[in-house]
Structure formats: C-alpha cells, structure tokens
Design goal:
CATH superfamily of the largest domain: Phosphoenolpyruvate-binding domains
CATH class of the largest domain: Alpha Beta
Keywords: Lyase, Magnesium, Metal-binding
Number of strands: 10
GO molecular function: lyase activity
Radius of gyration: 20 Å
Protein name: CoA ester lyase
Strand order of the largest sheet: 6-5-4-3-2-1-8-7
Cofactor: Mg(2+)
Oligomer: single chain
Pfam family, one: HpcH_HpaI
Strand content: 5-15%
Order of helices and strands: EHEHEHEHEHHEHHEHEHHEEH
Length: about 280
C-alpha cells in the first residue's frame, strides 16, 4: 500500500490509540496521519512512539504520515529517529514549522516533509521553507495560528487575515514547485453542509485537500473537492472541441486557449474521467 496520490482528505488519528490505526486506514481517507503531537499527552509520548513502531513493524503494508512534535520540544529528535527507521512512514508532518534549518534536519531522514504552518513566524519564513530540498507540500494550522496572532475566531476579520495566509501558502508553493497545500481542519463533525462548503471554498482557492479530525468528515470533504457534473460536462466539451481546433476557440460563448484546456484536463483528471483527456 502507498499513500494515495489524491489528498482531498488527510485524517488524523492519535498515536496513543493504536486500536484505531487499522480502522483509520480502512475508512476511506486519502491519507492517514498518525499524530504524535497535540493528540498525545506529554506523559504518553514515549508509549505512543512505541505503539506506532510496533504497529508498522507488524502491518508492513500500512502507509502513513506521522505528525511529529515541534523542534522546540524534547520529543522532536526521538520522533525524527522513529520516522527514519520505519518504511511505513511515507512522509513527516512537522508541527509549528517556522525554520528552514529545522526542515533541513527533518529532511535528512529521507522522508518527504509536510510543514504545518501554524505560527506567525512560520508564515514569514514561508519563502525560505518552501525552497528546502525535501519539502513536498505545506499544511495550514489555522486554529493555532489564530491563537498565536490574536485573532477572534469565527469572525469576518479573522477570515480576512487567514485568507491572506492562504494566499501566501498558495503562491509560495507554486513558485517553489511544491504540491498544492492542505487546508486547515474544520471543527464541526456533524454539519456536513458546512464541511462541504468549507472544502469547496478551499478547492476553489487552489488547495489540494484538507485536514480532517473524524471519519464522518470524509464524505463531505471528498464532495467539496470533486468537480460537479456541470464542470465535468464543460470540460468534456472543451476537449472535444479542442480536437478539431487549430487555435483559440469558443465554448459557451467564452474564449478557450491553452490555459483553459489545461484546466479542463485537470477537472477530468480529478473526476477520474479519461474519455477525452489528451
């Protein structure tokens, strides 16, 4: 088993709850993150590392990402060494990433690095961190970031500030040639409409997927990051028309050129529709 190429849903499961690992890996999430950081009490960190080690040594087909503790903690070095040893760890998510030098240290494990940006310093260091060899994609940790910079949650002002950070993540990732970033968690578990709307907005902005805290979030997240039937139909018609066009042409009264054709191809790729992909 390998980590999915799709990353619409990135599901956290506490490293201190090994009885949940297999369930998380089989519940339909695109990516599973075993969490050694916030979900594990300080006194349980060592036991959680051992539980993860035992699970991956027994379940050799399992493929996970591991969120490790921040570099400022005593657990950082132990977490890194564990990840280095385990083939089932396919990438490392570094909590409170805010230093290119620390990312270089993490990348020495040979694992792809997913920096979790959740501090003001992390935002300002994005250009440097994005250029560290081994960094694969950024993730946004908006809850911790909001506390760090003192914004009021669930307000218009907070959204303005966080959207500025989202733009920075998207632009710096693009310039550095990284994979598109991952959106922050949505705190509600049962409000499927709100979850889907949040995911759809992130998709429209250019995020690849979002962090999830419960399996019940997966279905609306997948729906939010999937093109709808109208988009799929439009993309098919664009590519069909492109087969006989020699230059720019129109579909639905709008000009179609090379960038629009690439967008149509991407929509059909997301929909797993290969009927007319060039």
């Amino acid at each position: 088993m390998t980590v999915s190429n799709k990353v619409r849903s990135v599901l956290f499961v506490p490293a201190s709850r090994p009885e949940r690992f297999s369930k998380a890996l089989s519940c339909g999430a695109d990516v599973v993150v075993i969490d050694l950081e916030d979900a594990v009490a300080p006194a349980e960190k060592a036991a959680a590392r051992e539980a993860l080690k035992q699970y991956l040594e027994i379940n050799i087909e399992a493929a996970v990402i591991v969120r490790i503790n921040a570099a400022s903690t005593e657990h950082f070095t132990y977490d890194l060494e564990l990840c280095r040893q385990l083939p089932g760890v396919k990438a490392i998510m570094l909590a409170k990433a805010q230093s290119a030098e620390i990312l270089q240290v993490a990348a020495e494990t040979g694992k792809p690095i997913w920096p979790l940006v959740e501090t003001a310093l992390g935002v300002t260091e994005l250009p440097k961190m994005a250029r560290v060899k081994g960094v694969e994609r950024f993730c946004l940790g908006a809850l911790d970031l909001g506390v760090d910079i003192g914004i009021k949650p669930d307000t218009i002002g907070a959204q303005v500030v966080l959207d500025r950070v989202r733009c920075d993540l998207l632009l710096q990732s693009n310039v550095a040639g990284l994979a598109p970033p991952i959106e922050t968690v949505f705190p509600s578990i049962d409000n499927e409409v709100a979850i889907e709307q949040f995911a759809q907005r992130a998709s429209e902005m250019g995020f690849a997927g979002m962090l999830c805290i419960h399996p019940r979030q997966l279905s609306p997240v997948h729906q939010g990051f999937s093109p709808d039937e109208a988009e799929i139909d439009w993309a098919r018609r664009v590519l069909v028309a492109a087969e006989s066009a020699e230059a720019a042409f129109q579909v639905d009264g709008k000009m179609v050129d090379a960038p629009v054709i690439r967008r149509a191809c991407e929509i059909l790729k997301q929909a797993n529709d290969t009927t007319v992909i060039r």
